[in-house]
Amino acid sequence: MFAGLRKGIVMIGAVAAVPAVAAPHPAGNSTPVASFVQTAAKSGTAKILYYRNEDVVKTTATTTKTPIYATVQTPIKNSKGQITGYTSSQKITGYNTVTTKSTAITPKAELYTTSGSSTTKSAAPVKFMLSVPDSPYAAILGKPQDALFSLSAVSTTAPALANGVFTQLFSGTLSFTRAAPIYKLDRLGHATSTALTNLLSISFANAVLTGTANGVTIGLAASTPDSAINFTSDFRQFTRQDWLTNFDFAIAGNAASVALARAAVDPTLTNVTGSRSLNSFRVSTTGTFAASAVPESASWMMMILGFAAIGVARRADVRKIAHVTV
Questions:
Q1: Domain boundaries, given as residue ranges, for the chain
Q2: pLDDT band at 37, cuts 50/70/90?
Q3: Smallest Cα–Cα separation from 175: which of 249, 246, 95, 256?
Q4: Could you tell me if 288 and 32 are in contact, meaning their C-beta atoms sit under 8 angstroms apart?
Q5: Cβ contact 9:181 at 8 Å
């Protein structure tokens, strides 16, 4: 039994185990479980998602010495000490030194949440709503939740550019953590669980970041089986029973602080090899998370680019089960 719990902690009486997610819907039906929108994003001032260029540039200098030769005449003398002729030979009198430079670039970029204008990784406060159908948590979690949003992802592949669009692969994690824990109670009011705070956590590999060259919007999207994705939550079970069950997410970034372009390299360098990541930038962000049979990644790309273009959509949508607001 927990005594003296601080204000804001919610307890659920006589709670049974959280039920599992319903069986997958037929192909073609999507089941979003969460989405988030920044309230301040409409003004374009809150840019909590940061793309950081961390390319490693290594310049190697190679010095080559070329000998300088001179002809040396050596006199030939007879027994009387008289010079009767000369012999010629080559002698090194110095060196010509030539230095060449070669530059190799190892691409690396990070994508993560920040707070304020800091470039340090930090969780951003949000309001979060989660779908927990047929669960004792439904009444609580169906309302905006004070939560912290964290995203941390890394790319070690250079962005490709085709038809004016950059694409780059990222792998990492993201999470929404409830500020005030929830506890399950038995009939006597005794706590029967540890603190429940994980609203939604996702690990992913090979999510695709896209963005139009010289544009100010990006998208980060992933869909199984093309990407490895795992959903977890303290309040809802996620299982991938067969190939019909997909996990997907799409995050849009709006109003980038600088136009999307490859980072520049000193033009005086020669023999430059390797590709470059994009210039560092910040964006406001919004996104959707789904489980079950859902659109393929290409469909998510079109959705998030369109979503970014029209700004933040605030209308109610019966297909969206959850909603986050900063």
A1: 10-55+107-325, 61-101
A2: low
A3: 249
A4: yes
A5: yes
For 143-199, the pLDDT digits (tens) are 888 889 999 999 999 999 999 999 999 999 999 999 888 887 667 666 667 889 999
Burial 298-326 (b: 16+ CB within 10 A, else e): eebbebbbebbeeebeeeeeeebbbbbbb
Q: What is the token pair recorded at 241?
A: 């029973």
- Residue 186 has which token pair? 């038995």
DSSP for 167-224, written as a single string: EEEEEEEEEEEEEEEEEEE-TTS-B-S--EEEEEEEEEEEEEEEEETT-S-EEEEEET
- Pick 259 or 76 by higher pLDDT: 259
Q: How far apart are CA 238 and CA 177, in angstroms?
A: 17
* 237, 20 contact by CB (below 8 A): yes
Number of CB atoms found within 10 A of residue 216's CB: 18
Q: Which is it for strands 160-162 and 196-212: parallel, antiparallel or unpaired?
A: unpaired
pLDDT at 16: 31
- Report how far residue 326's alpha carbon sits from residue 294's, in angstroms, rounded to the nearest whole number: 26
| Average model confidence (pLDDT) across the chain | 76
